[in-house]
Amino acid sequence: MPQQPPLRVTMAALIERHAVLLLDAYGVLITHDGVLPGARELVRHLRAIGKPFYILTNDASTSPQGHAARFAGRGLDIAAERIITAGMLLGPYFAAQDLAGARCAVLGPADSALYVRHAGAVVVDLGQEPDAEVVVVCDEQGYALLETLDAVLSLLLRRLDAGLPVHLVLPNPDLVYPAGPGRYGLTAGAVAVLLEAALAQRYPERQDLRFVPLGKPHAGHFVEALRRSGTRDMVMVGDQPDLDICGATRFGLPSALVTSGLARVAADGSGLERYGPEAQPTYLLGSLLV
Questions:
Q1: Do the Cβ atoms of 90 and 169 come closer than 8 Å?
Q2: Is the peptide bond before 2 cis (omega within 30 degrees of 0)?
Q3: Domain-located, residue 182
Q4: Is residue 155 located within the same domain as residue 255?
Q5: How far apart are CA 123 and CA 114, in angstroms?
Q6: Which of 188, 252, 263, 286 is deepest in the core (most CB within 10 A)?
Q7: What is the DSSP pairing of strand 20-23 with strand 7-9?
Q8: Same-domain check for residues 105 and 20
Q9: Average pLDDT per consecutive 10 residues, the chain (290 residues; last block may be shorter)
Q10: What is the domain extent for residue 51?
Q11: pTM value?
């Protein structure tokens, strides 16, 4: 059967239709430079009417408390308890993989290392030519990029040449983030792609040397949102079809695509045809204004 085209709705209608709103951060509420139109008014309205909402962000470089403080500085009153980050997914993943106590090389700022420590692992100093069985790429900032990539690659090649196992983890699989109008930046997923390409050149026969992604479109954020909200009557509002929308679809949730975000999709939905079936939203949302 042909797929139904997405329904164009207002934010007010979306709030009325669903018990809980799940909101992406970058590209929906904010960019690197500031707050997107309608975001402050939306958050104030949700708080005023007592509507449950959660922020689902693939960021793994800042704690929920740090995000709450940054949001507050931009006029967005969002409590840390409403923020679910990709860094928080490391704890369940490390527990499932029995990685408690593992030595980890972490790429990211101080909060990234804190996420890894909270997951029960030991963070090694990359400046000391360490050995580590796990590499976690959390962010593209917080370290000297080239020097750190050289150190991580050297660590991995030493272990692999010696026949020792490595575990590659990517909390944030995003490749690109919106920095501002007409401006974009590479993020953690792009760093992981670079390391994977180097490993593939050295070990072309190995198909297992790939980073395990944890954030959207994978299920971890949605599992945690379900645990906190206690209902599946949730709708995901995002700007990236292959991450936000696809993740909701795979988890069995409806989704709304903000057409002013990263996606090359017009307000009438033209452009969606370039994305796969899982990335087709339930709704099209032209504005956050209630």
A1: yes
A2: no
A3: yes
A4: no
A5: 9
A6: 188
A7: unpaired
A8: no
A9: 77 97 94 89 97 97 97 97 98 96 97 97 90 97 95 96 97 86 88 97 95 97 97 96 95 92 66 83 91
A10: 7-58+216-285
A11: 0.92
Give the Cα separation of 245 and 285 in Å (integer). 13
Residue 72 included in any domain? no
Cβ-Cβ contacts under 8 Å for 94 (sequence gap 6 or more): 100, 102, 119, 120, 121
140 in a structural domain = yes
Cα distance between residue 69 and residue 71, in whole Å = 5
Number of domains forming the structure of the chain: 2
Task: Give the phi and the psi of residue 144 in degrees, each rounded to 5.
Answer: -75, 110
Contact present, 195 and 156 (Cβ < 8 Å): yes
Q: Supply φ then ψ for residue 57, to 5 degrees.
A: -120, 140
Domain end among 213, 231, 260: 213
Orientation angle between helical segments 145-161 and 188-202, nearest 10 degrees: 40
Query: At a CB cut-off of 8 Å and minimum separation 6, what does 98 contact?
Result: none
Identify whether residues 104 and 160 lie together within a single domain: yes
Sign of the CA dihedral running 34, 40, 41, 45: positive
Question: Are residues 150 and 256 located together in one domain of the fold?
Answer: no
For 100-169, the DSSP string reads TT-EEEEES-HHHHHHHHHTT-EE--GGG----SEEEE--S-SS-HHHHHHHHHHHHHHHHHTT---EEE
How many residues would you count in the chain? 290
Q: What is the Rg, in whole angstroms, of the alpha carbon atoms belonging to the chain?
A: 19
CB 3 within 8 A of CB 276: no
